[in-house]
Amino acid sequence: MMSLEFGAYCVLMTLLSYLMVLLVLRAPQPNSGIYIGVALLAALLTGLHAGKMFRMYRIAMLRFQNRKPTGKKKQSLPVRHWSDRIAAEEAVGRHDARRKQATGEEASPELEAIRLRIAERMAKEDRERDELAREDRERLERERIERMERARSERIRNETRASRQKN
Known about the structure:
Layout: H1 2-26, H2 32-67, H3 82-103, H4 109-166
């Protein structure tokens, strides 16, 4: 299907460029020789480029088709015998034992120091986050109180103006 698209592109673009040449030949203008030459060159280059694209596409499709296996062989999963399963379970058990030993009481002092530094850094970040949140809450509360005070002051001013106008 794609080869038809590229073939059609090749034909249509060459035809379009050639039709431009015919249009100029039928209705000549002053100095149209330059335009005719450029249009012929454009038709030639367009045709060559479209042909090259078509050839490259066909080569790529042939390579892709050659890469595909011709017969679909169903790959079966390897059969594990009971001895293989036991060996795998033992390997998993040994791995779990080593992991527990590494995280247990016998961990190296360097590892403990690293864990301590990480815990301190996380605690410091938590304190900073809490402090920022507290400051943000305080700021919002101050702004709310200031807005209430401004509204109260404005209401008092409006009331005094209204009472002055009545008198």
